């Protein structure tokens, strides 16, 4: 895989000389609406476009991809697409958009017609397979074990045990697959990844709540929409936290896996039982991020009447739950 990394300073220098690399800005369409600024002359790649579309240019064209999160998850994903399409000179911007801003990089408003800079587009035939997004993106180059702040999102199928009483095991497997396919696709499109599928649930992780919180609402809405045509699909409940985690490998010589150790993992797991069907539970750490940059999501939560005493924790935890009116209404 011919994917490199480039620092903001090195990219700034490259942009002063000809030929300058093609800049691709990888994010969802609603993210462009919320934050219209971008690197000058960047071309948007819509992460929620199905199937994904890529520029159809000479494969020797130098390309630099960046995304809004400092973990480079979406930009790494697009870089993989480009590599699979045959491009040979691809780099991901180290630290993404936050690093570019922190370095005093020039910005410009991304014009709606920016995609017209590219005359030809091609459809991604198939998602490339490979390492976990985290290992290829925001854990790349880190000596493990490593410590960094991450957002954790636990997803649970409500009343899944009942399925075994009403469905054959093969049917249950099909329902779990349909459920987790939606969860996985949305997690990856929001700069996240799945750490593990645990029976009727999954643990997802993201660089920050800026990605995990919109992902939680998108998962909830997508599963609710899918239940219209597949009513036996279970409802979902979710819980989020954010904080420092230690990431390292565990296991023996025959089999090793990536492990996430930290309070945020246990807090989110314990909060799951407090979320009602279709509901989302979140901690104060997540809400602080939401109030700063995602007020519409923050407004969807109400503080639980009493701080919760969670198993294994000495101090009570403030818990926020989505209220019923936060659910998307069909028109």
Automatic annotation (TrEMBL):
Chain ranges of the Guanylate cyclase domain: 151-272
GO molecular-function terms, A-Z: adenylate cyclase activity
One Gene Ontology term from the biological process aspect of the record: intracellular signal transduction
SMART domains: RHOD (SM00450)
Domain Rhodanese: 17-109
Source organism, top-level taxon: Bacteria
SUPFAM superfamilies, per the entry: Nucleotide cyclase, Rhodanese/Cell cycle control phosphatase
UniProt-recorded name of the protein: Guanylate cyclase domain-containing protein
Organism: Solimonas fluminis
